[in-house]
Give the backbone structure.
Amino acid sequence: VESKHDQTETPIGYHKVQIPTGYMPLVGPNDFFSNRVWNYLLKRGYIPEQILKENIHFLGANALWLYTEFGELVYLQSREVISKRFWFPPNEIVDASGNVVSKLEVTKEDVLYGFDDVPKSNYVIITESVFNKVSLGNHCVATGGAAMTEGQVKRLKFLNPELGVILAPDNDKPGLESVLTNGDLLLSRGFKVFWSVPPRIPIGSDKYIKDWNELHTELSFNHDKIIETMNKTLIPYNDASRFRIRSVLALGIKKNQ
């Protein structure tokens, strides 16, 4: 009878992310699919130079964003521009028996989109989505989720925002809740923290601006006007901010808050 001491487990390795087969750099609206992806990005606030700088790839109607750190590819995500479905690389590779044989070296919880784009400066803007990052400019990174992780905080330290970090989430319940969570986390790590949410400007009979990118797509704000709007509502994250946010959450978010 074979004892458990005679059994050997296959060691689990780690692998780096790779660009999926078939994806190509998006260099212009050169055919049916590249035209569709290119124009979709323009509508969301990209300019041609920025598409090229970020080295966005495409396959069919899918756009692929590359996450780099110090020039090295560490993660990626794609979005189908018609259905708006996202895709992220799986964290694990399993064999035919369902055993994990390899884990992704860097996962979504570790990365900040735009890390390599942030210039040497004294502040960094934190937002959730890639498109909000586009609207808020090169000083901005996207977390890909409402709550920041320890891995993302470690990467933020590399950017060394001496004057502070600006939390710029969506103006909705999860966004405001994330200010409380992320604000407390960053303060505990020694960062100076500020926050700002987009104004809830009416854009229909019962619809309001929710995120920074909608200022461009719905109201045609350019980058400078979006930053000007952010600065008008920029305030330090402190006890008064906590009270204000918790009061808004308790009462429910109203228009123009």
About this structure: The longest strand covers residues 72-80. The helical segments are 32-43, 48-53, 130-136, 150-159, 173-188, 212-217, 223-232, 239-251. The mean pLDDT is 92.
